[in-house]
Amino acid sequence: MTGRPKLQSALLGLTPFVALVLIWQVAPSVFSYPAYMLPTVSEVGRRFIELTLNGELARSVGASLLRLAAAFVVGNLIAIPLGVLLAMNARVSRIVMPVAVFLQAVAGIAWAPLAVLWFGLGNTAVTFLVVNSVFFSSFYNAISGVRSIPPVLWRAVRSLGASPWQVVRELVLPGAMVQLLLGLRTSLALGWRALVAAELIIGTNGIGFLMMDATKWYGTDTIICGIVVIGVLWLAVDRFVFAAIERNTVRRWGMVNDN
After folding, report:
1. Which domain holds residue 233?
2. In this protein, which residues make up the domain named ABC transmembrane type-1 (predicted)?
3. Which residues, other chains included, contact 96 with Cβ-Cβ below 8 Å and sequence gap of 6+?
4. How far is it, in rounded angstroms, from Cα 4 to Cα 11?
5. Is residue 237 over pLDDT 90?
């Protein structure tokens, strides 16, 4: 997609956000509510500039992104190889899959009480919750991806005398790639949510902590700034990281399409 169609697509994507801002702008003249409940667009804009100039926003975002990146790498370095290894044995995968489904369902913030008991309040507990979310999401998708490979392909590569490493390289990774990429994208999204939620509840810094701290003095403008930053950061990662990876792998290989 290039030129005019790409521009039209971008403008179309911006339309809902523009409409939302317009509704927000006219809301005070239509509804009656205390000023602290929903500050105006200009007030939030001024607060965003203040947080940017004094460095508070950059410090908070930096702390959150660093924690997320570390948890994402650690969680996936363990989850994907382990999930692939277990799923390569059909009998083991059948046993493990229900456990993976269960743990994926309760991953993340549901572990917060235990995290506090084990690690106390602070960054260690927050990081544990994010790694937990990332790990179980990628673990489940790795197993699911390998199990989705047709049995006939397994028999074919083994009949050709492929070594275990060749099976992984020539069959497992290409065959499970769509699900593995889905796992990476989902794990980052769930990790991002768990991170913000954990910072809101038990964190001592980061974007979530900044938002929760603002509630002490009814800083709704700061809270909305945080919400916008969280959404924009995720859109940027999804657009410029995962969409690019998908475009250069599974879409180029014809494994998925836009239909």
Report:
1. 62-248
2. 61-241
3. 86, 87, 143
4. 10
5. no
